[in-house]
Amino acid sequence: MSSDLHPSQLHQHLQMYAYAKWSFWGSLALGCGLLFLGTTQKPESKPWILGASVGVLEVGRRHRQTAKLLQESLGDIDRASRLNFQAWARANTQPTAQLALTVGVIDENWKPDNFITDPVEYILQKQKHVAMVGGTGDGKSTFTQYLSSKIGGRVVVYDSDAKPDDWAWLSAADVIGRKGNFLAIDTAMGNDLKTLEELVELRGEGGDKALVGRERFMIAEEFPVLVDECDNARPWIKRHSKRGRRYQQFICALAQNDTAENFGLEGDKDTLYSCFVLVRLGQFGRDYARTKLKDPQLEQWLKAGGKKRFMVDDCPCELDLSNWGAFSRGQHQTDSQVQEEVQSQPTAMNEYEQFILDWGQQHQSEVLKAGMLSRGTRLFDGMQPDEVRIIFVSMADRGLGEVEGSGAKLGWRWSK
């Protein structure tokens, strides 16, 4: 008779049968125990204990009757158990086998259809800010340095947890909030809002030319913490998200989750997706590929690439140091223009760039490598080689010398 039952009914009947059978035996054991206990108690207690024993035995009798009825409907219990197990195995192992077959055959040369090679170009085309999601060790610092070197403008970082060697490529004045100084961050964000209003007036009077030299790239680390600690954090991100790009005030906010609440935009999810490009690093990118895009092959591709591969909106991306020197400055410059620019920019350069520039002018035609700086001067103590190479590329993009090589072999040399 078990063959007449649907697999879901079969499983349910077997569960009910097992419950009824074990309830009968449990009730029988408890009832006998109460009977034995009743014989050893005082006379005034015996009626209560014996009554409880009879009640428990009655419950057991009914469970025994239910078990018999279920056994009649199931027929051969062993056969019914085998059928139930087969149905469970089909439901739970076949999808897994299919997934293993689909994911396990990934070609090393496979790339997603919408793969992009230059996330900065994508971001600039979208004319949006950046909301970055990543955990510790996912490469947030490296990516933000790369981003700031390509987009340009004065870089300002709001980071209450910055260690002494974090953001070493920036001047100390441009890293605000060290040692949990949220008051400094809140004050600076308030000044940013005033600056934005001033730029609105300047542009209204003098056009885009009035904004030249006032470009800024602002990085806000652990933005949910800043929202909790700084009153100006919410208006800061809301006003800049909607108006900042027009006035060359680019922001990059970092968080551990891609919800609107984490970026201080409660109830305003549309602003997050309409004004920001979402960059998901590490496990966040892989989770997005699996749960939102439903693409296990993409998830495995991201995992195979480590920190180099991540998601930019719905587009997979791979960022390699060998591509960092390929970004165009947007216009050709003559040697005389470059020389004039070099002479006019030293006051705007930080101490690391100034040291590199001085070295290059003293050792013309020689190629400077990151390892040479770390061994030759204490100025670059604590700075990672990748961070030094970022400075090389940033300077080359601005016409201060040129880069040679790629990846770990990338170096910089002075050129007129």
Entry summary:
The chain folds into three domains: 2-104; 119-319, Rossmann fold, CATH 3.40.50; 335-413, Arc Repressor Mutant, subunit A (Orthogonal Bundle).
CATH topology of the largest domain: Rossmann fold
Broad structural category = alpha/beta
The major beta sheet can be summarized as: 8 strands, mixed
The rough form would be described as elongated
Number of helices: 15
Structural domains: how many = 3
Q: Spatial order of the strands in the main sheet?
A: 3-2-4-5-1-6-7-8
Q: How many angstroms does the end-to-end distance come to?
A: 92 Å
Mean pLDDT: 77
Describe this structure in words.
This protein is α/β, with parallel strands linked by helices. The chain folds into three domains: 2-104; 119-319, Rossmann fold; 335-413, Arc Repressor Mutant, subunit A. The chain contains 15 helices and ten strands. The chain has helices at 7-39, 46-74, 77-104, 119-126, 140-151, 182-206, 223-229, 233-244, 269-275, 282-292, 296-304, 335-344, 351-362, 370-376, 385-397; strands at residues 129-133, 154-158, 175-176, 216-220, 249-255, 276-280, 309-312, 315-318, 402-404, 411-413. The strands form two sheets. An eight-stranded mixed sheet has the order 3-2-4-5-1-6-7-8, sandwiched between helices. The chain has a two-stranded antiparallel sheet with strand order 9-10. A hairpin with a 2-residue loop joins strand 7 (309-312) and strand 8 (315-318). Helix 5 runs parallel beside helix 15. It is elongated. The model is unreliable at 1-8, 94-104 and 321-347 (pLDDT under 50).
